[in-house]
Amino acid sequence: MTCLRLALLAPLLLALPLPRSWGKPCPPVPRNATVFVCTAPDLYVFPSGLPGGILSISVEFTNLSTMGEHALQGLPLLQELHLSSNRLQCLPAGLLWPVPELRVLDLTGNLLEDLPPETFCASRLLRHLVLGGNRLGRLQPSWFQSLGALQWLDVSGNQLRKLPSHCFLPLRALQSLDLSHNFLSSLPPTALQGLAQLERLNLEGNGLQVLAEETFQPTRGLRYLFLQNNSLSALPDAALVPLDQLDTLDLSHNALHALDFRLPEPPNSANPLGLDLSGNPWVCDCHAARFLRWLRSRPVHLYARNQTLCQAPPEHRNQSLATLAESELGVSCPLAPGPGKLESQELPPSQVGKA
Ramachandran region of residue 207, left (φ > 0), alpha (ψ -120 to 50) or beta? Predict the structure, then answer.
């Protein structure tokens, strides 16, 4: 209803005599121009009468709060639309229909709480979609039905509390997905279905408490996985094993304590795995001994080594895990598969640190 009222108000604003401060805040545009840029803070209404050959529009850092249904009419060649850092509260359903050539849409830092289901139905060529820093409380699967060419999707910094199952299924070309800084406490097991081309996944700062064993099965080509600043207390044993192309894995600042989960094997010594485990309350026991053995025998770069500390037992509290000798960690817990493809039999105490 708010969006409808704003849409009805826009023509009235255009018809009113403008105060001097509203004047013509945007610079004049030559008829043969292909790029239009306006960052005037006193712009309240989207500029009209732009040349039909415009390829890129940037209207950013203004007081623009609404877009008329026909704001982009007569711009059939438009490929980039940058509307970041305005005050947009909603978009009309047919806004993008006149611009089927659109490749880039940036709506960062507005006040959007929702979008019409058919918003992107004519945007089959869209490659980059940035919705970060808004107030979106949900993702609608209908938004993505026509976006088979999308490569970059950013919905960070919104108010998402859950994801619909199979939400991203149509995004078969997606390479980067940013869901960071939302309120996701869990992910549906099928959340990443269809994302076979995904290389970068950012889930930082969500309060994630649990991950399903099969979460990353559809994304075996992932190279960068960011899970820092969540509330993970454990990882399913084999959840990360399929990700054998990983370059970077960030698990820092969670509530992880046991090093009994398996990690993917680094592809080769020329491409070591960058691993961050800092800021977790690690228990330095036999699982940690097996982890150290794995870590020291593979091409892995451990970031923030001095912040990767033991919380327990008391004799190792606040010691850097990476500096401990395996022989210091004992064999005080039953054996379970550790990182990578580790041994499945317990070592006698005399052999700990020699394997």
Answer: left
